[in-house]
Specification:
The protein is α/β, with parallel strands linked by helices. It has a single domain, classed as YqgF/RNase H-like domain (Nucleotidyltransferase, domain 5). It has a five-stranded mixed sheet, with helices on both faces. The chain has a three-stranded antiparallel sheet with strand order 1-2-3.
């Protein structure tokens, strides 16, 4: 029987380490930022910003298929107090729809202030939300790498 364990952005199946490509998503009520890791899942890069409209899931699924993504990281939207905020319910519905459409594993990564961090680094541009998604994805990769190194 095969055992499966997610480590960093790699997967271990029957003792073999396999790299995997990740997508990072910064979900917003108007726009959704997309970031993509390299093929080994070690670095995150801003990719695109797409409108949050009726074609959102279809567009993301198409991107996932085109880029051979194997795992999804979504920014976990919480308020300053650590409790759910108004957009949290929308994010949960989005995650459910993505799960049903892709069947891929989805991880949540805290996303407080990532847009402000992106603006601080590059100023506000039409790609700010993609930069925020990249910060979210890089945070996830770093956290998993630190966890792996501490185990």
């Amino acid at each position: 029987m095969a055992t499966c364990l997610f480590v960093l952005s790699m997967i271990i199946i029957n003792g073999m380490l396999i790299s995997m490509r990740l997508i990072g998503i910064d979900y917003g009520s108007k726009r959704v930022g997309i970031a993509l890791s390299d093929e080994k899942g070690l670095m995150a890069f801003p990719k695109d910003v797409i409108p949050n409209d009726s074609g959102l899931i279809k567009n993301i699924v198409s991107f996932i298929e085109t880029e051979n993504v194997e795992m999804i990281v979504v920014g976990h939207s919480l308020g300053r107090d650590g409790k759910t905020n108004p957009i949290h319910k929308d994010v949960e519905e989005f995650i459910t729809a993505l799960t049903l459409q892709t069947g891929l594993p989805i991880e949540l990564e805290p996303e407080q202030y990532t847009t402000q961090e992106a603006i601080r680094f590059q100023g506000r541009t039409d790609k700010t939300d993609a930069a925020a998604a990249s910060i979210i994805l890089n945070s996830y990769i770093t956290r998993m790498n630190n966890k792996k190194n501490n185990d």
